[in-house]
Amino acid sequence: ACGGGESAAPEKAGQASIRLGFSQVGEESAWRLANTTSIEHAATNAGVQLDLRVADGKQENQTAAIRQFINDKVDVIAFSPVVESGWDELLQEAKDAGIPVIVTDRMVDTTDTSLFVTMLGSDFTAEGRKAGEWLVEHYRDYNGTVRIVEIEGTTGSAPANQRRSGFAEAIEADPDLQVIASRDGNFTREGGEQVMAGFLKEHPKIDVVFAHNDDEGLGAIEAIEADGKRPGVDLKIITVDASRDGLTALAEGRLNYVIECNPLLGPQLMELVGKVRTGQSIPRRVVVDETAFDREAAKAVLPNRQY
Ligand code: AHR
Predict the structure, then answer these.
(1) Pocket of ligand 1 contains residue 213 by CB under 6 Å
(2) What are the DSSP calls for the chain, one per residue?
């Protein structure tokens, strides 16, 4: 899979004095916790002084953290924006202060690309597309409507927007595949369970659940079982992330297909931070390599899964 393992730490030479302010989204999912740990470990390995602030899913908290980094005159700012829009003014402040900004994981929606130096993260549209393509293939020989419910990620976030559109684009290949309902599950287990319980009450027949992350899918499993149905059998479930818990549910047959979204971005981030600090050229976009898992593939990778 992706992104250099945790062993791919950059060289320490010349980085000892770098101060990095990192504003993290929150603690909503297993993915997010693994992402934070990866960044902390990689900073330690690279000798980067990390000021990590966790925003509890609130844009205003991220704004306050980034303003603080600007006041503190850190060398580099990195952040994973909770939602896509509304960052221009703040990023302009960082630019005016001469502090380079690296966007990680989730993209910002801006027309002024000079406001950040690079974007490191997954291709969420491709992830959504992979989910849709699996479904098209799975129902290739099936005749009749396939009723899909979508448990979306946080409204306004890049992964929710892009996974939704990639998925929609892929399932257009088969008009029998129909999304009958979609709702925000906020990337949490609790959210996934609540949204799924609501769908089950409102819709007498559901064939497929597309959850935008594993946690939502795992929450949906609870709701489906509570409703007396068999997750993975009576309802097919596709999720994104491929966390250990997600792959375990896939290996048990309670999920059906899982798209990888790799959170171990720390080593690549530190490498970029070092290069930005020393004025070396870096690509505008660094995409993380990722794969997808069916049941057998999940069983094969589970023993060594890091997150
Ligand atoms: O931005 C990445 C997404 O955010 C992950 O898929 C999800 O689990 C996390 O909360």
Answers:
(1) yes
(2) --S--TT-PPP-TTTTT-EEEEEE--S-SHHHHHHHHHHHHHHHHHT-EEEEEE-TT-HHHHHHHHHHHHHTT-SEEEE--SSSSS-HHHHHHHHHTT--EEEESS----S-GGG-SEEEE--HHHHHHHHHHHHHHHTTT--S-EEEEEEE-STT-HHHHHHHHHHHHHHTT-TTEEEEEEEE-TTSHHHHHHHHHHHHHH-S---EEEESSHHHHHHHHHHHHHTT--BTTTBEEEEEE--HHHHHHHHTTSS-EEEE-----HHHHHHHHHHHHTT----SEEEPP--EE-HHHHHHHGGG---
Q: Which atom of ligand 1 is nearest to the CA of 28?
A: 10
Q: Quick check: 6 and 39 in contact, CB under 8 A?
A: no
Sign of the dihedral through C-alpha 132, 134, 137, 139: negative
Q: Which of 2, 27, 28, 29 to mutate to test the pocket of ligand 1 (most atoms within 8 A of CB)?
A: 29
Spell out the residues 6+ positions from residue 41 whose beta carbon is closer than 8 angstroms to its own.
6, 266
Q: Report yes or no on whether pTM surpasses 0.80.
A: yes
Q: Mean pLDDT of residues grouped by 10 in the chain (307 residues)?
A: 40 66 98 98 97 98 98 98 98 98 97 97 98 98 97 98 98 98 98 98 98 98 98 98 98 98 97 96 95 98 95
ipTM: 0.99
Q: How far apart are CA 305 and CA 242, in angstroms?
A: 9
From 25, 31, 127, 245, mutation site for ligand 1 pocket: most ligand atoms within 8 A of C-beta: 31
